[in-house]
Amino acid sequence: MNLRSQLELRLTEAMAKAGLSGNPLVQTAARPEFGDYQANGIMALAKQVKRNPHELAQAVVDQLGASDLIENPEIAGPGFINLKLTSAYLGAALRASSGIDASPHPRTVVIDYSAPNLAKEMHVGHLRSTIIGDAIARVLTALGHQVIRQNHVGDWGTQFGMLLTHMQESGANSEALADLEGFYVAAKRRFDAEPEFAERSRAVVVGLQSGEPKAREAWQRFINISLSHCQSVYDRLGVLLKPSDVKPESAYNDDLDPVIRALREKGLITESDGALCVFLDAFKGKDGNILPLIVQKTDGGYLYATTDLAAIRYRNKTLHADRVLYFVDARQALHFRQVFAVADAADFKPATMQLEHMPFGTMLGKDNKPFKTRSGGVAKLAELLDEAEERALAVVSGKNPELDAEEREAIARMVGIGAVKYSDLSKHRTNDYVFDWDQMLSFDGNTAPYLQYVCARIRSVFRRADAHGDTAADLTPQHPAERSLAIQLLRLQEVVESVATEGLPHYVCAWLYDLATKFSQFYEQCPVLTAEADDRNRRLVYCRRTLDTMELGLGLLGIQVPQRM
Prior knowledge:
Blueprint: H1 3-17, E1 26-28, E2 37-39, H2 41-49, H3 53-64, E3 74-76, E4 80-83, H4 87-96, E5 108-112, H5 127-142, E6 146-150, H6 158-170, H7 180-193, H8 195-209, H9 213-237, H10 256-265, E7 269-272, E8 275-278, E9 293-296, H11 304-317, E10 323-326, H12 333-345, E11 354-357, E12 363-364, H13 381-399, H14 405-425, E13 433-434, H15 437-440, H16 448-465, H17 480-490, H18 492-502, H19 506-525, H20 533-556
Parallel strand pairs: 5-6, 5-10, 10-11, 12-13
Antiparallel strand pairs: 1-2, 2-4, 3-4, 7-8, 8-9
């Protein structure tokens, strides 16, 4: 049900009949007067074959002929082809549509996202990776791909020796560890101020890495508490990560030596100042020097690069991934380019296995600096969600004081969490964005509360109509606003397929906002409850399809919809 793909197929066939080959480049029309879609590929083709673009466009249009899909294609400008879908096709497609069609070529996709450091509580810096990765996982699952979530948490290294030593010497119990951030700060203060404590901490690290039972037991206790903190945040956010999705750095520990051996066997290891490095010509600077990827430090310790290489081997050999997506912030772009290049050079993966870094920008405060608390510290993610729910409750209570307290609180949870998620997901992934409470909780504009309100508004129509309409009836649009709404509903497939390819969930947000806008125009221009029988039935079905499709789209973003607002 991908409208653009169907049009591209028809145009490609018509081009072949006209003796032409190439991509018709079908895109959504820039303005309604240009039709529903435009084919812009003739211009580039004409330049390539040195022929008049208008003549080529006419040849293609002649071959399209009468169609159940396209109504009277027109040539605009020097060679653009305007395409308008027939109303009969829209009605039949709307009647036949049933959500999202599965991909004919399902793949195994590993998604690496969230990845908090278990030494501390999750903070706002983990928000984008967590909710963007979750949205893409939902979209790919909806398209029938086998999605394997991998939460690559940090649970290893010197900092854990520091924490375990402080835990042992302070006699900390589970209650003391409830405030992980405070516990970390206290341990770090001792580590920096007490050389003997620092030395004992390093000794614990050695014991931990060598498998000393008491060190491993204490470490596991700390990790379990930290993971429970993470899971409580995931549950509140409504993301689908579970404990079974955790694949920590420590899980790859036994494969780090084999990674180094494999790199040696490929002749890729070079010793530099005592460290083991990989030098690839692709990372040669203007000065002629190559930026190395360090895989083992002079003291024998391993780095993130070594663990990431081991993870690639695991995702290839064990998970049999066709595609691996890494939702990690943009500052790690060079790291991943190097790791991916070394994995290729070492044959840690087949050429057909795609490794894709999906970078994202930074969440900023109103001062255009990385988001902080009022006191200037890094904001805990749980506290941010608390504030979102509190602010949403104030808004909901102001708009609906007649609702009982329990219902207002339930609505506020959906509105508050949804607002935080949508505000992020509606921005282009690679851009920084300013976190603005007033904007994200507004019931006007491209926000989650507005979309949730539109859904609630449609439900109120059904309560008054006491009917949902007969979907088997003729759904051919009879009014321009019906037609516009039908097209937007049917664009869902092309939107989610674009999101799956590019990893950009803001496409879904833009489509949802356009759908809500077109529904509002439809509702204003096309009476539903007071219409004649056939019109009333058709329009009720349009309302039903809009509600179902909006809830489906918001569900792809992990956003819940209240029954009423």
